[in-house]
Amino acid sequence: LPFIEKEEKEEALEIIKKTIRAIKEETGIPYVGIIYGGFILTKEGPKILEYNCRFGDPEAMNILPILREDLTEIFMSMIQTTLKDISFEEKATVCRYVVPRGYPVNPLKDARIEIGEIRDALLFYGSVNEKDGNIYTTSSRSLALVGIGDSISEAEKKVESGLSCIRGEVEYRHDIGKEELIKKRIEHMKSIRKK
Hints:
Blueprint: H1 6-27, E1 36-42, E2 45-52, H2 59-63, H3 71-79, E3 92-100, E4 112-115, E5 122-125, E6 128-131, E7 134-137, E8 143-149, H4 152-163, E9 166-168, E10 170-171, H5 179-194
Antiparallel strand pairs: 1-2, 3-8, 3-10, 4-7, 4-9, 5-8, 6-7
């Protein structure tokens, strides 16, 4: 992400590594599995807010499509403790959710969603119901679309194009991945670092 500096990323990664080492020291059992941390940037650097021992949502939808290695092989090598470095395509991704109208306070349930040709975006089904070949909202995030491109701008255009093919009483943010929002995030992070 253009608003996170390399040193901040490395510092956050070191916090995760220390956690993994501490789990083994405390339990005698090495941690094997998915783990990610939710971080917040403070004037003293990144601080951990939460750990999750599962794939992040939407984070996984952004990174798994650009993973170069086979995910099943990665899992097997984790179990066999032979995992080596994994790599990702040098691509940008943008993920946007489609949610029921009124989400999150008063989401419209059981509203039909029509999904047309998604074009160059990837479609992930979330919290939906299928009845008689049709897709309906529940009370949570219904769909996620991911655009992949050589730049954030290109990925954003692909996801926006895909979203234009979805009809129903649903909403989604148009600003995610747009240059204006990214600039806003960059300036916000700069102001935190100065405090």
